[in-house]
């Protein structure tokens, strides 16, 4: 008995493998069961499970599953002796259940992880007996529309049963009444939208309705008297192998069954239809089986849509490659074979080096075409068994199955040479494209998919840092790789810190040293993180990782929204505390902005919304951007500054002097404050060149009407020197240390 033949209904009976003369036949039951995510429904009672296990002594035990994942076994003896080699429960714990059955050479009953059912199974396995099996009600978990109707099937079965019941009654009543009722039932079968075929007890066709005629290509007159297998030719959609005649199974077992979901009907003329069907016995009043009824309908369109949606969920639509989700799923299986079967694989992380130039020069259409051509090139150099995936943007993943690292390195070199020789032509332009490749081994020492992806990514990033367009193998003792690996680990830690609200705002005072506005309060807003052990973490530990993995816009937005929210509450309660006789506002908070936020088209809109939402006076906010960020995209930075200055905000150019052409760019940036790079300020006591640089920067700033701020003022000597040079403000540990930013009755 090939099981389970799952009917395309919302709920039906799924039978355990039939016990035929002390031999348990399993067929494709477990594979189909797990492939289509069948879960035991509430109708799987403790009584039925206990009875099945008690009556079927050839069942070695039960497999406990939760959410289609293996969680354990209960057995009569050592369950894992039935497997191809000795394994442990822990090895399969929380793995998809179909992976467990790949290594199982016996049969088992699947039960849900429910206390009452597990307890019943434990008890039943201690007192076996010899009888037949019982069915279990299961539920097919699918989200498609209700294209299959249970009521239609029931009505069909009742209609056919009614025909034979009336036939028997006719022997006791009039032949005329029987014919009338039989004709009514026949009309019902001919009027419904599903195909219906009935056979006698030998499997010979007695009736086809019009829908069955259309789908099979046989007329009723031609099909009558023929065996069903001559008219109803069905195969498996994937393997193209013949599928066992469902009516034959029904007549043998006397049970209602359904075909698996991947059944194809080949019509008389060669047309193929994806069908969903079920078959049931036709019995007399005394229970004698006198034939069978087969009901099926065309689900070709629905199945094509299902295949399309399934493909789209696991593939990249631009290149046709598998996506990150599917790639990581396959990587999980490769990792399992490495542990269970001592196989060796290689994981490659590939990143195009000149993709942005093509995109920026020729547009996204050209960039898309480049990705398609690169995909074709890479696929031409790998085996069918290997998996190439597009992970996002211009990044690709490659899984080389059963390929040790030394061989994987040779494959990577071949791919690298292929890309080096490639030239991308677009209209009148010719581009060369480089590729950086990071590799890592997959073997029995590998830990998780996440650590593998992290190692390959770190190796790829190191290849870029060392000159791009090269290959880098991950080595656990490489200090640069360890640094990159650490940054990747910070990504999850940063996201978790957001979830657990472990970021904190600090501030450091900026004091006037050549100014008489003693009432003016000026602070730089700083960010700190509380780690998992409750320790304070400096931003230099996590900001590099946040910048690389594009988390800075999220951090910048959190800082702004958090500061504004607290500032708003304080201002509403104490409006007099931030106003002075000479200026409407006597507090200024300086907020650092990343280059990613400045280049974000939606960031200015976000700022406007926050100012309006919290009613924060823009005059109380100063944004700081580093000189390096400003120079990299001067026009964008200038536009950004102009936009917010019109709104009332002020700007400071941070770390001034660190760039190669600082003075040349300064005149193009409409800033209010010039913060002198602390590397010069801290050495001003002993380095005459550093003193000259501070003096020059301050002099230029004063000529341009800018207020100058000396950073890294660590002691009184440095303070006196910058004061003598005419610098307006000082900031550093010699002035005040960073403190938690708390709004109280007195301004900070």
UniProtKB/TrEMBL annotation:
<dbReference type="InterPro" id="IPR052155">
    <property type="entry name" value="Biofilm_reg_signaling"/>
</dbReference>
<dbReference type="Pfam" id="PF00990">
    <property type="entry name" value="GGDEF"/>
</dbReference>
<dbReference type="InterPro" id="IPR035919">
    <property type="entry name" value="EAL_sf"/>
</dbReference>
<dbReference type="InterPro" id="IPR043128">
    <property type="entry name" value="Rev_trsase/Diguanyl_cyclase"/>
</dbReference>
<feature type="domain" description="PAS">
    <location>
        <begin position="181"/>
        <end position="254"/>
    </location>
</feature>
<feature type="domain" description="EAL">
    <location>
        <begin position="487"/>
        <end position="748"/>
    </location>
</feature>
<protein>
    <submittedName>
        <fullName>EAL domain-containing protein</fullName>
    </submittedName>
</protein>
<dbReference type="Pfam" id="PF00563">
    <property type="entry name" value="EAL"/>
</dbReference>
<feature type="domain" description="GGDEF">
    <location>
        <begin position="343"/>
        <end position="476"/>
    </location>
</feature>
<dbReference type="InterPro" id="IPR001633">
    <property type="entry name" value="EAL_dom"/>
</dbReference>
<dbReference type="Pfam" id="PF08448">
    <property type="entry name" value="PAS_4"/>
</dbReference>
<dbReference type="InterPro" id="IPR000014">
    <property type="entry name" value="PAS"/>
</dbReference>
<feature type="domain" description="PAC">
    <location>
        <begin position="259"/>
        <end position="311"/>
    </location>
</feature>
<dbReference type="InterPro" id="IPR029787">
    <property type="entry name" value="Nucleotide_cyclase"/>
</dbReference>
<dbReference type="InterPro" id="IPR013656">
    <property type="entry name" value="PAS_4"/>
</dbReference>
<dbReference type="InterPro" id="IPR000160">
    <property type="entry name" value="GGDEF_dom"/>
</dbReference>
<dbReference type="InterPro" id="IPR000700">
    <property type="entry name" value="PAS-assoc_C"/>
</dbReference>
<dbReference type="InterPro" id="IPR035965">
    <property type="entry name" value="PAS-like_dom_sf"/>
</dbReference>
